[in-house]
Structure formats: structure tokens, C-alpha cells
């Protein structure tokens, strides 16, 4: 258990509405990640953070923004949700002492 | 351009036999490889890893083999058990950076 909590775990939202997913960790790790998982694509990196207010884009960042104002929280925002953003979103951390990534339990987002 | 490929979307194996999951990569800069296991409605969990300085790593029933010249790695599970039924992802990173490139996953089904 890497102490990662994602919320909400399930959400249905309408096209065009903003959505924020929260990732909370209890171990004060520097590196945090947001991935999406879709059939046939495996896990794709959206954004990542290497410290408070230090974030960078991953391979599928269009339509997403992130914020990290505290070490323990990493927020993923869909400014205007689209149906193509229907997916499962996973938050992850890498402990400062290692290079193994640990995932949260996922947030299922459906955009209708 | 998929840098990490898992060409078998699914694999069915009899309980007690060996399961072999394969992964190919194209980037010769990758120097660290990991296997993750994912059950439905859960986040991926770390299974086993291997550094490019090794060609084999073993952990209980799980062994990962790395063939650098062929840019190929495989995960062997012996003996296969019903609880091994899951989706398996391979992932790779280069130069100890914290960004992983993921394969699309292979669904392993263990038949009783």
C-alpha cells in the first residue's frame, strides 16, 4: 500500500463541464503522475510532477491541466470534458528512494 | 510509434503449466524494465523488474528474461495459478528517468 487515495472513484459528467480528479498521498513523495488507461493503449502519461508547483506534460496532455500546491495533493482538471476523455485515470507515485511506480486504485470517468 | 509492444492481446494457459508473456521494445536507450499485473477495477501492481545489466531476474514463481540484442523481454510464470488471471503490462524507462513507456497489456487467462 503506497498510501495513494484517488477521488472521486466514479463520476459521470456531461460534455463541456469541468471535472477535477484528486490524488492524495500520505508519504510526501516528490514524484506524482497522472495516467489514463484505455483498451489497446495501455497506460499513457498525461502529466507529472516532481515537486510543489513543478509539473510537466506527458504524451497525452491536451485537454488536461494539473496543479500541485501541496506535496500530498496532485489535481487533474479537465477544463471542458469531451467524450474522448471517457477513461480510467490512475494516479501514481515513485518513492524518492526507488524507481518502482505505485498506482492508486483508479478513477472511472464517463463523459456523456 | 509504439516503443514498447505486447503483441498478444490475450493468452490462455492451463492451470499448473507455464505462462510466457512477451514484450518487445525499440528504444536501445531503455535500461530498466518492469512488469505489472492488473486485476479489473484495481490499479496496476508491481510484479518484477530487471535492469539492463542483467539477463534474468527471479522472484518465486515469476522470472523475467531480458534479451538486449533482440530487444525482447519475457515474463515466465511457473506454475500458473487461477489467481494469475489478470492483465499484464510491461514498461520500460531510459537512463533512470522517472518516465515509463508502457505496452498495451496482455490478458492472461488461467484455465482450471
Number of strands of chain B: 11
Order of helical and strand elements of chain A: EEEEEEEEEEE
Q: What structural class do the secondary elements of chain A suggest?
A: mainly beta
Regions of chain B with pLDDT < 50 over 5+ consecutive residues? Answer: none
- What kind of sheet is the major sheet of chain A? 7 strands, mixed
Low-confidence stretches of chain A: none
Outline of chain A: globular
Question: How would you describe what is shown here?
Answer:
The complex is a heterodimer of chains A (112) and B (112). Chain A contains no helices and eleven strands. Chain A is mainly β. By secondary structure, chain B is mainly β. In chain B, 0% of the residues lie in helices and 56% in strands. Chain B has strands at residues 4-5, 10-14, 19-25, 30-38, 45-51, 56-59, 62-67, 72-77, 86-94, 101-102, 106-111. In chain B, strands 2, 4, 5, 9, 10 and 11 form a six-stranded mixed sheet that branches. A five-stranded antiparallel sheet of chain B has the order 1-3-8-7-6, with no helix packed on it. The model of chain B has no long low-confidence stretch (mean pLDDT 94). The interface between A and B is medium-sized, with 22 and 23 residues.
In short:
The complex is a heterodimer of chains A (112) and B (112). Chain A is an all-beta fold. Chain A contains no helices and 11 strands.
Amino acid at each position: 500500500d503506497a498510501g495513494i487515495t484517488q477521488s472521486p472513484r466514479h463520476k459521470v459528467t456531461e460534455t463541456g463541464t469541468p471535472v477535477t480528479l484528486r490524488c492524495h498521498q500520505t508519504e510526501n513523495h516528490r514524484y506524482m503522475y497522472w495516467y489514463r488507461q484505455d483498451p489497446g493503449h495501455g497506460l499513457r502519461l498525461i502529466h507529472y510532477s516532481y515537486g510543489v508547483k513543478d509539473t510537466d506534460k506527458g504524451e497525452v496532455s491536451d485537454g488536461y491541466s494539473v496543479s500541485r500546491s501541496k506535496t500530498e495533493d496532485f489535481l487533474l482538471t479537465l477544463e471542458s470534458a469531451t467524450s474522448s476523455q471517457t477513461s480510467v485515470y490512475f494516479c501514481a507515485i515513485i518513492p524518492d528512494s526507488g524507481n518502482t511506480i505505485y498506482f492508486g486504485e483508479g478513477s472511472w470517468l464517463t463523459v456523456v | 510509434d509504439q516503443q514498447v509492444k505486447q503483441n498478444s492481446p490475450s493468452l490462455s494457459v492451463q492451470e499448473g503449466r507455464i505462462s510466457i508473456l512477451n514484450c518487445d521494445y525499440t528504444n536501445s536507450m531503455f535500461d530498466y524494465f518492469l512488469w505489472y499485473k492488473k486485476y479489473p477495477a484495481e490499479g496496476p501492481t508491481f510484479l518484477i523488474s530487471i535492469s539492463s545489466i542483467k539477463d534474468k531476474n527471479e522472484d518465486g514463481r515469476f522470472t523475467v528474461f531480458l534479451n538486449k540484442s533482440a530487444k525482447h523481454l519475457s515474463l515466465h510464470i511457473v506454475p500458473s495459478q487461477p489467481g494469475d488471471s489478470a492483465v499484464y503490462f510491461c514498461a520500460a524507462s531510459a537512463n533512470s528517468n522517472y518516465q515509463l513507456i508502457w505496452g498495451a497489456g496482455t490478458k492472461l487467462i488461467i484455465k482450471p
